[in-house]
Prior knowledge:
The chain has helices at 15-43, 57-76, 81-109, 117-141, 153-171, 194-225, 229-257, 261-284, 291-322, 328-357, 359-375, 381-396; strands spanning 402-405, 423-426. It is mainly alpha-helical. A two-stranded antiparallel ribbon has the order 1-2. The chain starts with 14 loop residues before the first helix and ends with a strand. The model is unreliable at 1-11 (pLDDT under 50).
Amino acid sequence: MAVSAAAPEARPRRWPGVAAWALWALTILGLVVAAWLDHLLRQAGMPELGGLQAASAPLLVAAVSAATVGAVLASRRPAHPVGWLLLGLGLLVAAGGVASQDVDYGLVARPGSLPAASYLAGISNGLQVLWLACGGFVLLLTPTGSLPSPRWRWWARVAAAAPLLLMLLFAVDPQPLAPEHPTVDNPLAVPVPAGLLRAVAAVDAVIVLATLVAAAGSLVVRFRRARGTERQQLRWVAVGAAVVGAVALLVGVVAGAMAKDRVVLAALGTCVALLPLATGASILRYRLYDLDRIISRTLAYGLLTILLGLGYAGVVLGLGRLLPQGSSLVVAGATLAVAAAFQPARRRIQRAVDRRFNRRRYDAARTIQAFSARLRQQVDLEALTGELLAVVEQTMQPTQVSLWLRPSPHDSSGTPRSEAPPTTWAY
């Protein structure tokens, strides 16, 4: 009798998780190197060239957010491209910060101190374009990991080719630090008229921006066609982009028109920082169906904070006119007034917000309230049972519901009755 060797047990491949967290560690290392270069620039007496400033803080948070969410996605779902794109986005943001500060220190603050700085002058500008392109592909492939339809393939090719071409044009720009430092030369420059090179770069930049807008529009196309779980996934991304991203983008546009470059950088970093969080929650389906509840609670407590703050200020100002200046009764009275108004105001605001933004919860609460009122007048057990099951099905929407009633051990006359199986109603 032939004996065959037992097949070895299939083991899950661990290299995607190792590679993902290695890229995450590389991103964090890049941010550490950027902090070190920022310290060198401050020692050189040029803190304005440093990257660790208030305006760039959102962009640093975006790098950590993208790298962390990308590592989690890539390690859990290595076949999904969005995780690797988020890792690339975070790594490119960190690399761009390192390259730009390396150029500032090696060509402006301490010329000649870093020999490779001249080669990075044009490349550092192109890195900004590449991480924007990664963000566009994240939008284009969320949440399924594939294009919305085969007709988007040509646009995906354009979205990939345009930033690469712009990166190449930046790398060979004869004056990469113009107009601030027009005397800095680029050893990678090609003998092409600077005007023609910049004209082509401007057209290509418009194409890159158009691809970002088209990627955002693809989410609208997906949402109109999606059903069920995919529609809930897209709602996370849509809310994350609409509630905060749109506001940050509006601030960036206004600041750009006013030539406030640091405000533009902060607004852009805020947008990029929110994208990985919403995308990761939608792909991993974390608390997927709690979005209405999160929105309603956020709006309710936001409005409550504003109203109580205004009420506190009004009470302080009102009592301040009646009582002596510096009296502790002013603060005590305002605090007591806010504490007394907190719960009633919270209930009223939550009810108003649910009526508008969380209609399912509002309708369920009204259904339960109406059933509680009818419960006081209902004496028929069978009718009550059927109505109770119907209310549970309408408000909770379970896949199956049943009611188990334990029989009474005595009859109406007090005589013990024989054991009987419990009565069960199913809906």
